[in-house]
Amino acid sequence: MPSFTSLIVTYNSANEIPDLLGDLRRHARPNNVIVIDNDSRDGTADRIEGDFPEARLVRNTDNVGYARAVNQGFELCETEYVMLLNPDIRIPNPDLFEELLSHTRRFPELAAVAPVQYKRYDRKRHLNLNWSFLAPRAFRIYIAHLMRLEKRYERPVSVTFLNAGCLFIRRSAFLQAGRLDEKYFLYGGEPDLFLKFKRLGFESQLLPNVEVIHFRERSLDTLAGDRRLRYKLQGVYDTIDALVVGWTRIMRDRLGQPGI
């Protein structure tokens, strides 16, 4: 019986997905693998089907957006835990999944946990700056890395936001939160989800003792510059909208007013 399901949304990811699926094949047994392909035009789906027949592949005939594809994948998941992964994630640590799984199982109040994400370039490892580091304790981790300090952090850090590129989720919490809001095509669904977790009283934690490599936005790099810019600008608007709506709901709850 699989302990968790790996869920991946692809779009023009033919150069990225083989490495990730290879990592899953080596390190993540037993688990289910579900890939939702958003009408890639570079042969992504054919490559998955040919080289990784163990993955359950869903071919969308249109690019339905990230949020809708994730929700589509969750409907197919039968395990209580889901590992949400971007195609450009690399997993150097064979114990990653067991550590995420065992930690989440111990704490029923946890909705999601995530490892620290690094990026490699110039033959060096660089910490990816993301929303998790807005929490003061998490920001200390980022500053220590930036200053090349040797201090190692082991204890989990409670944060409001985590990066959905590599995210271990309790499926029941995700469903209780109402899934990702599909009005957000690419960006915005992430902060919306975590503010819904917060509103429901769930915790989210960053685990600094485990790590992955995340190259970030490789699918966007396959698009023409003007289209990529439109996605980015829409993403800024959607992120602001998600934050305003999410925090407004929380403040109304605290003030005893009807939610929106």
Could you list some keywords that capture this structure?
260 residues, alpha/beta, Spore Coat Polysaccharide Biosynthesis Protein SpsA, Chain A, 10-stranded mixed β-sheet, 8 helices
Explain the overall architecture:
- The protein is α/β, with parallel strands linked by helices and 260 residues long.
- The chain has a single domain, classed as Alpha-Beta Complex (Spore Coat Polysaccharide Biosynthesis Protein SpsA, Chain A).
- The chain has helices at residues 17-27, 44-51, 66-76, 96-106, 136-146, 171-176, 189-200, 225-254, and strands spanning 4-10, 31-38, 56-60, 81-85, 89-90, 110-121, 124-127, 157-159, 166-170, 203-214.
- β1 (4-10), α1 and β2 (31-38) form a beta-alpha-beta unit.
- The longest helix is centred in the last third of the chain and has 30 residues, at 225-254.
- The chain is globular.
- The mean pLDDT is 88.
What topology does this entry show?
Layout: E1 4-10, H1 17-27, E2 31-38, H2 44-51, E3 56-60, H3 66-76, E4 81-85, E5 89-90, H4 96-106, E6 110-121, E7 124-127, H5 136-146, E8 157-159, E9 166-170, H6 171-176, H7 189-200, E10 203-214, H8 225-254
Parallel strand pairs: 1-2, 1-4, 2-3, 6-10
Antiparallel strand pairs: 4-9, 5-10, 6-7, 6-9, 8-10
Helix pairs in contact: 7-8
